[in-house]
Design a protein that fits this description.
By secondary structure, this protein is of the alpha/beta class. 42% of the residues lie in helices and 17% in strands.
């Protein structure tokens, strides 16, 4: 995957708002034109899709075009279902689609059909194959490197070996390989990757089964750290160690800053997660959708270009993720209002919150 920086990402939010409002007439008022945007998300296993992305995208679209309508569907990890959802949206008049593919390759034919029907598709969070018109995500290689570097730091501080188990994402997702390659680039030659698993559906159950197999074959005492691709996978990893009777868990990574992951971090069960400010990602996708719906050049919104396995120079926006350990909670998810102190500090983790000075 190749990227070419075109503009400074630091000015992203202001730039997106300016471009989108310019399409609304330039006076800060939403335009009178109207069209329907279809939003297709991949599953409910990962909490962020329903809790964060859907409402944020819907809100942003309404702010930028108050006469526009959003229709929504969740694929429940079923690519065939998502194909039908895409066809239904196009048939019913959606003029732009924001798609987080349940399977990056399997949706290619549906994206081709949308293209033939004159309906542009924005790949959201995960790159899709086929003639997509834009891509919005966080830099996956950087996420993987952050996870790998954090894991090595925690292992060095713990001083209990260099044996790593990698719990990668779903192989049907382009992001899984992106994250994995980034992590491997950080850890190569510095640790021993003893086992590497693919987690079907990004599910905690699949992660639990794979981690149980690793514990059985390697022995819990020989596992120095676990590179878990996201927080749902980390949950399965933690449950496998607990079922095996392990009390002193090795460092475990994550991604998405789910509330349950924050609790695990405060309890010392998970070392870190990666915070991705979903509001910025939602704003970027909405700005692209509005531009495309109005027939404007999406490259005016994009800040970079990305190549997929099938197409080159896709107009893209790649945002910067943030690694989060217990010490970083206040300046990240609390500062940005993702969670309140009340939410992340229930009684079971209140002592840890007090030690960190998290009050309110």
């Amino acid at each position: 995957m190749r990227t070419q920086a075109l503009h400074a990402v630091a000015a992203l939010v202001a730039g997106l708002l300016a471009v989108a409002l310019a399409g609304c007439g330039g006076d800060g008022e939403a335009g009178s034109d109207s069209f329907t945007v279809g939003l297709l998300l991949p599953n409910r296993v990962t909490p962020r899709w329903e809790k964060s992305d859907k409402p944020l995208i819907e809100q942003r679209l309404k702010e930028l075009c108050d006469d526009c309508e959003m229709v929504y569907a969740n694929a429940e990890n079923d690519a065939a279902r998502q194909r039908q959802q895409m066809i239904s949206m196009i048939t019913n008049g959606a003029e732009v689609l924001i798609l987080d593919p349940a399977d990056s390759k399997a949706l290619r034919s549906s994206i081709l059909e949308a293209n033939r029907a004159g309906v542009p598709v924005i790949a959201y969070d995960r790159l899709a194959e086929g003639p997509i018109s834009g891509f919005v995500s966080f830099d996956g290689a950087k996420i993987g490197r952050m996870q790998g570097e954090a894991l090595m730091k925690a292992m060095a501080e713990r001083g209990k070996g260099k044996t790593v188990v990698m719990m990668n994402g779903d192989p049907s997702s382009a992001n899984a390989a992106w994250f994995r390659d980034g992590a491997v680039s950080a850890m190569s030659g510095k640790v021993d990757i003893a086992r590497s698993y693919e987690t079907q559906g990004w599910s905690p159950e699949s992660a639990h089964a794979n981690m149980s197999a690793a514990i059985s074959s390697l022995g819990a005492d020989r596992i120095s750290g676990v590179l878990a691709a996201n927080d749902a996978i980390a949950a399965g990893v933690v449950s496998a160690f607990k079922k095996a009777g392990v009390e002193d868990l090795p460092p475990i990574t994550g991604q998405d800053a789910d509330l349950e992951a924050v609790w695990r971090i405060l309890k010392g069960e998970q070392y870190m997660t990666v915070y991705k400010p979903f509001e910025k990602e939602a704003a970027a996708a909405a700005a692209m959708a509005i531009a495309l719906g109005r027939g404007e050049d999406v490259r005016d919104v994009a800040t970079t270009q990305v190549d997929s396995p099938t197409h080159q120079d896709i107009p893209s926006i790649l945002l910067t993720p943030v690694p989060v350990t217990a010490d970083d909670l206040e300046r990240t998810v609390l500062h940005d209002g993702v969670f309140t102190v009340r939410q992340i500090c229930p009684p079971i983790v209140r002592p840890a919150c007090d030690r960190l000075g998290l009050t309110g």
